[in-house]
Amino acid sequence: MSEETIKVVVRRREEQGHGVLVLDLASAEGGALPPFEAGAHVDVHLGDGLVRQYSLAGTPADRSVYRLGILKDPKSRGGSVAAHERLREGTEIRIGVPRNHFPLAMDARHTVLVGGGIGITPMIAMAHALSDAGKSFELHYCGRTRAACAFLDELTAGAFADRVHPHFDDGGEAQRLDLGAVLGKADPGAHIYVCGPSGFMDWVIGEARRLGLPEARIHKEYFQVETDSSGGAFDVVARKSGKTVRVEEGQTIVDALAAVGIKIQVSCEQGVCGTCLCNVLEGVPDHRDIFLTDEEKADNDQMLLCCSRAKTETLVLDI
Ligand code: FES
Fold it and tell me: Which InterPro entries match (predicted)?
């Protein structure tokens, strides 16, 4: 989570598609907001300790506002519902400075952007950046129905409308996304970017791999994952605090530590953002996150405390 925050005011609030809150946030002090790169996100502080990450969905060329799209998910852990209920025009909130874990390679010969549902948000910023730079790209927007899709009107009427390809689940076969055809026609050096629900992403990534795209040219951002917290109990020794705590079956390390007064800062609580990263001094973690790379996981010297567990009876942590 970003430590540095900015005070912003909701300048515009609009409901689009099915349950998507589109917000324009301006600096509360006036003037330009800090610059951001396509693919970046901000932490939004929603009150009561709730902090959630949302991708910036506007153009990086416009620093007068940050545009967000927030899907209301009643099954979520409260972040999106709080955003929909609390953020009105004129509301002042704090947000983190933009950070980018999903950078765009501007030197690609061709770029295929694929957004599923609310996963369209980082793709919009990427499309603007590529369009402004005169780069070759295409944007595929997959949604359940036309009516469900936020941002569709601005995309299909904007400066790069000719490169926007909507695909609807309830549409005809001819308009379905055929990744084989898309990549078959694309420059062999093309890069693909995907964001959306995890099942959709698995399908796109699987297709891209099957079609022979090298891993280095498949870029992905998960905004929602289901972490598996099952597994037996184990002990955690907090070396600096001198405390040992039992992590029970079904309990997270974060919750077990909180019970003995050790507060770990969290944000996504899904192994996505890296906020709860901690050094491991002894023992072998059972990594359940999607933040660390496979190489970093293999080193076993750091872990995410919101979701990962232990393969050994005891973990000694640097806290
Ligand atoms: S809180 Fe986001 S990875 Fe743990």
Answer: 2Fe-2S_ferredoxin-like_sf, 2Fe-2S_ferredoxin-type, 2Fe2S_fd_BS, Beta-grasp_dom_sf, FAD-bd_FR_type, FNR_nucleotide-bd, MRET, OxRdtase_FAD/NAD-bd
